[in-house]
Amino acid sequence: MGETAKRLNKKYNLGAVSFYYHKEGKFYENLKGFPGVLFDSNGYVRFASEDEYKNHEKISVSVKTNVKGGISSLKNYIKFPDLNNRNNTDNSHVNNFAPEPTGTANEYNATQNNQINSSGARNQDNTGDSYGEAFNPQSLEDARNWIESQVAIRQGATEFRKRLLEAYDRKCLITDYEVEEALQAAHICPYRGPSFNALENGLLLRADVHTLFDRHLFSIDPKTFTVILTPKLKGTSYEAQLSGKKIKPSKNMDLETFKFALQIHLKESTITL
After folding, report:
1. Domain residue ranges of the chain, discontinuous segments joined by +
2. Of 35, 45, 50, 87, which is most buried with the most CB atoms under 10 A?
């Protein structure tokens, strides 16, 4: 599938099964597994399913894949983030946050997803070995310490979480859940430096809801602030908990920047309004 595409898929933590690169974004080998990604020199398009890929109005799939106008002309095209121009001063979160598309999962989540699967077990590593060291009950204290450290990281930077707790009355924005230990600071656009800890880029969410948001299983309409689910959550217990719920943004932030960040998340979720 090409070393360039393989490197980009890994660098941006896209989790694609099949991926190809073409400098101009017009001609590719056919994607053979999903999720799949097509790269050009400035960005990428991610396809969650074969239907999404083959039924796209600008994509012709035959012996090769031909993209009319290049992938940069597609609505779900995401530009690579410019990591070199970030202002990384401690106070940059105050007024320097500028949301931009940065992929489907933040760097923290990609790291955690590589370490732990949904059942809490460590995943198989890339060497083909099984699930790490043999179980040793004497190591339980180390395991407890490790879990505590992961919870601390997952709750986000202390100040960021503190601002969100104060802004949203210490309740989950969507479910009104109020046990503080289970509330987490969610980044709307994936964290790329201190400026991304702006209130405009944050949601206070219950831990499990945070995970669903990071995995783009639901998004929020930036015009009505209404929760929208992907088909995967339809018919689950989360449909009753989340679908159609409206959030109330904090008054202590720039609303237009908040809306723009939500628009980016919605676009990356590939949810059609």
Report:
1. 3-79, 85-122+157-269
2. 45
Q: Name residues whose C-beta falls within 8 Å of residue 126's C-beta, 6 or more positions apart in sequence.
A: none
Q: What is the pLDDT of residues 60-118, one digit of tens each?
A: 999 999 999 999 999 888 888 643 333 333 333 444 566 665 444 444 344 444 433 33
Q: What residues have CB less than 8 Å from 26, skipping those under 6 apart?
A: 66, 67, 70, 71
**Is this prediction's pTM over 0.90?**
no
- CA distance readout (Å), 52 to 47, 93, 223, 250, 262: 6, 37, 25, 36, 22
Phi, psi of 162 (to 5 degrees): -60, -45
Q: Tokens for 59?
A: 């994509």
Distances from the Cα of 221 to the Cα of 65, 218, 226, 259, angstroms: 32, 10, 5, 9
pLDDT digits (tens, 9 = 90+) for 5-39: 999 988 877 788 899 999 999 999 999 998 899 99
Q: How many residues does the chain have?
A: 273
Which of 111, 250, 78 is CA-nearest to residue 191?
111
List the structure tokens of 152: 């601390």
Indicate the angle between helix axes 107-115 and 140-154, nearest 10 degrees: 160
Closest C-alpha among 127, 103, 102 to residue 114: 127
